[in-house]
Amino acid sequence: MRRRNFLSATTGTAVAVVAPIVDTRASIVGTSDVIRLRSGLDALMSLDAVRGGHEALERSALAGADEALEKVKRAASQRIRQRLYSVAANYTSTAAWAAIDGRQLGRAQSRLDRALYLAGMAKDPVVELRVWNSYAMLAHQRDDFTDAVDAGYAAQATGIARRDPFYGSLAHARTAVAHATLGDRQAAIRSLGHAQEALAKATEAEARPSWVSFYGVAELDAMMAITRDRIGDFAEAEAASHRALSGIPKHFKRNRALATARLALTQVHQRDIDRGCRSASSAFELMSGNPIPGRMRSLLGDFYRDLITLAPNASAAREWGDRYRSEWSRA
Fold first, then answer.
1. CB distance 299 to 258 below 8 Å
2. H helices present in 215-291, as ranges
């Protein structure tokens, strides 16, 4: 009887001691976990390209960040920990971007603050640049135009912007838009020149994260259109918008719709009311089947404001106003 009890006790002890060791090894987080988490980022960016930022995307991104951070304590090495922080920073930046595109400014600010902290923990200058790029856009939405310029300079100062002309080009282009909004024509044109020169030096074959896949010659043209329009070069802005639309890939529906709305603005600013209204209507059509993100709603609101200011009695303006009010009700 004593022997049987001893064997039972020994067996139980062995299970109690060995089982946690097996479980711990199984739960160690390595490269494959990082790759899996990063693939989720790619899926979210594909959704953003079509639909734009929205609350469901924001929630999914925050869940991804939480999952990455939950795994940090079980990382196989310091290198894996840093990669997990990088993934978490990118997910948080994606959540911030969804809030910016939806014009949820308070949430966007808190997300960006968190993302910048995580980027520092990751020692990842690419995410750091991404955050400063978004800070510049958020500052513009808040009419903090000096802050937008300073965020553009902060993006330029990141290590990746100094090393890789592709990222440097994006930082200069964002700064150009901010200078133009402040009315600094010379600085805006100078920044555009730097952006063009840097992009011409960039290596296309280099692998880059999915969040920045929107940027290239066509997107630079789109940002040039914004810059030129804001400093009063309306014809140059229209030409840049046409170039952008000829190059922005079809699957970037939201970006194509934004560029189309920008084209409409440049046309109305030249008093070409009929064409401007047709272009603005095309923006609605490009987003057909999807809710209109808050940032685009704001831009179309700007178009309508300028339209009724410049041509309050035009029949095309009245017809477009009816369309605008109808589309505005889309949830």
1. yes
2. 217-230, 234-247, 253-269, 273-286
pTM (2 d.p.): 0.87
Main-chain phi, psi angles of 29, to 5 degrees: -95, 130
Q: What's the CA gap between 264 and 310, in Å, rounded?
A: 13
Place of tokens 């500052």: 139
Q: Which of 93, 123, 153 is the last residue of a domain?
A: 123
Instruction: With respect to residue 316, please indicate whether it lies within any of the assigned structural domains.
Output: yes
DSSP annotation string for 289-324: TSPPPHHHHHHHHHHHHHHHHH-TT-HHHHHHHHHH
User: Domain boundary at 123, 158, 179, which?
Assistant: 123
- Spatial CA neighbour of 207 closest among 126, 274, 295, 150: 126
* pLDDT means over runs of 10, the chain (331 residues): 36 33 59 89 87 88 94 90 96 96 92 97 97 96 95 97 97 98 96 98 84 95 98 97 96 94 97 94 88 89 93 87 74 47
What is the C-alpha to C-alpha distance for residues 112 and 164, in angstroms, rounded to an integer? 23
Evaluate whether 34 touches 84 at the Cβ level (below 8 Å). yes
User: How far apart are alpha carbons 200 and 180 in whole angstroms?
Assistant: 22
In a domain, 235, yes or no: yes
Distance, CA of 116 to chain centre:
14
Expressed as residue numbers, the domain containing 322 is 229-331
CATH classification of the domain holding 310: 1.25.40
Q: Exposure string (b/e) for 260-289, b if CB count within 10 Å is 16 or more? A: bbbbbbbbbbeebbebbbebbbbbbebbee
Angle between helix axes 315-328 and 273-286 (nearest 10 degrees) is 20
Tokens 């690419």 correspond to 126
The answer to whether residue 61 is domain-embedded is yes
In a domain, 253, yes or no: yes
Q: What is the DSSP string of 83-152?
A: HHHHHHHHHHHHHHHHHHHTT-HHHHHHHHHHHHHHHHHHT-HHHHHHHHHHHHHHHHHTT-HHHHHHHH
- Nearest in space to 142 (alpha carbons), one of 113, 179, 170, 104: 104
How many domains would you assign to the chain?
A: 2
